[in-house]
Amino acid sequence: MPFYDPRDNRPLKLPMIFPGSPAVTQQQAAAIVASWFGSKAGWRGQQFPVYFNELPDRNAIVFATNDKRPDFLRDHPPVKAPTIEMIDNPNDPYVKLLVIFGRDDNDLLLAAKGIAQGNISVPRQQRHRGRHQNPAAASALRRAELGAHRPLGHLR
């Protein structure tokens, strides 16, 4: 997993990228994701530097909606549901970006909660998390569609 390696004894440094000054809901989504990664880092410590519409030279988390996205994602097609996608950094294909997309800020919050609850894994292709009326059916569907048998932290 390019975003966290449990064998690395150094503090986790994982930048968070926003298109501009984040709204409260975007901040909540970022806090949930940071908390999840922070819990994985444990005693090592962690830092989550914030970038606005720019790319760091390391792996990072990006928060974007259809209407508000960093310039480097301007050509990405609009999403139709909360979406989590791992992509190459446009400046360096060896650096990865975990992009948390949504139609709006509420979708970002749903996707962040999905990560924290462990219902979403991110294989090499993009995955979606839709809204379902029946929680049991939704859970079964996520396990089948999203490979929930592999936690996000164990992906390679």
From TrEMBL:
InterPro entries in alphabetical order: Cell_synth_B, Cell_synthase_bac
Gene Ontology terms: biological process: cellulose biosynthetic process; UDP-alpha-D-glucose metabolic process
Subcellular location, record wording: Cell inner membrane
Pfam families: BcsB
Task of the protein: Binds the cellulose synthase activator, bis-(3'-5') cyclic diguanylic acid (c-di-GMP).
Family assignment from sequence similarity: Belongs to the AcsB/BcsB family.
Subunit structure: Tightly associated with the cellulose synthase catalytic subunit.
Protein name as catalogued: Cyclic di-GMP-binding protein
Organism, scientific name: Klebsiella pneumoniae
